[in-house]
UniProtKB/TrEMBL annotation:
Pfam families for this protein: BPD_transp_1 (PF00528)
UniProt xrefs under CDD domains: TM_PBP2
InterPro entries: ABC_transporter_permease, MetI-like, MetI-like_sf
Compartmental location: Cell membrane
UniProt protein name: Carbohydrate ABC transporter permease
Family of this protein: Belongs to the binding-protein-dependent transport system permease family.
Organism annotation: Streptomyces marokkonensis
Topology within the bilayer: Multi-pass membrane protein
Region named Disordered: 1-25
Length: 330
């Protein structure tokens, strides 16, 4: 009773005394909700200006007959409707046939590059889990290709793939004698191999870094218990390592797929504006269709079709991998 009376007296005193310090009010619900959006506003603004607005403009251009005659004022270009899309998917016509060939080349290149990057990264990360002298130096060396600027690394490889004075032919032909004559690496069918080598060389350290980080979350007690039960190294990798890395691999493979399928810098720096037919990736093909033939409407339609393909593949992949994770967890 005394405490209640005292509290009541204190409340009346604060109400009656104008000079008393006001009570602090807790932040309202609107303020708590608005703070995250306020912090995200700069990123959302940049995303809008850098990605969304150009994307919308590209979609609009894909429905226009935008050629070199309307570059100065592209808004006056005549409306083409779905003609650009029909031309791009007409695989019996030269434009559609070339696009299909480039698409199949890109799919093969992406599967090989992503698979080799993951395989090399996983093998190196698992090997680096063991403690030995010089492990820190090797980890640093493995990350050098990922740390180098893309242009500097690819230009170096372009010099190494030169036919007459390149390091690759010097080793394969002059020193090892594996070829009858120095092969061409930047033209012809061998250009696909050269592009794949450069892509894997600069991509596998990222897989190594991500998988190595994921391995840190697997308790060593599990491996020790498996070893006591007689499990070998391969059985430990198959039964413990790979299932534990499933969430990491889900994100890693998706990121590598998107980066590799959309890769423009590597073939452009390695071959220039005109890539060989064997290494004609779809990113270079769309660039040539837009900026060399000056047919931006058709090039934009190809870009939109590529975006739709990547969205569908990403959605199917996430659905399948998420269903697989739920089955394993159950």
């Amino acid at each position: 009773m005394t405490t209640t009376a005292a509290l009541g007296t204190g409340e009346r005193t604060r109400k009656d005394d104008p000079g008393a310090a006001p009570r602090r009010r807790r932040p309202g619900r609107l303020r708590r909700i608005g703070l995250p959006y306020l912090l995200l506003f700069p990123a959302l603004l940049l995303e809008l200006l850098v990605h969304l607005v150009p994307m919308v403009i590209g979609i609009v251009v894909s429905f226009k007959e935008l050629t070199q005659f309307y570059i100065r004022d592209w808004g006056t270009a005549p409306w083409a409707g779905l003609d650009n899309y029909s031309l791009a998917v007409d695989f019996d016509a030269p434009v559609g046939e070339a696009l299909l060939s480039s698409f199949l080349t890109t799919c093969l290149f992406t599967v090989l590059s992503v698979g080799l990057c993951w395989l090399l990264g996983a093998a190196a990360a698992i090997f680096m889990q063991e403690t030995f002298r010089g492990r820190g130096i090797l980890r640093t060396l493995f990350l050098v290709p990922y740390a180098l600027p893309v242009y500097a690394a690819v230009i170096t490889w372009a010099f190494m793939f030169q036919r007459d004075n390149g390091l690759v032919n010097h080793v394969l032909h002059d020193q090892l004698g594996l070829t009858d004559s120095p092969p061409f690496w930047l033209i012809g069918d061998n250009s696909f191999i050269a592009l794949l080598v450069v892509s894997v060389w600069k991509g596998w350290p990222f897989a190594f870094l991500v998988i190595m980080a994921g391995l840190q979350n697997i308790p060593k007690d599990i491996y020790e218990a498996a070893a006591l039960d007689g499990a070998g190294v391969w059985q430990q990798i198959r039964r413990i390592t790979l299932p534990s890395l499933r969430p990491v691999n889900q994100v890693l493979v998706l990121v590598l797929f998107l980066w590799t399928f959309n890769d423009f810098n590597t073939p452009f720096v390695l071959f220039g504006e005109a890539a060989p037919e064997a290494a004609d990736l779809i990113s270079i093909h769309i660039y040539q269709s837009s900026f060399q033939t000056w047919n931006f409407g058709t090039g934009s339609a190809m870009s939109v079709l590529l975006l739709l393909f990547l969205l569908v593949v990403t959605g199917v992949y996430l659905r399948l991998t998420s269903r697989g994770r739920k089955t394993v967890d159950a």
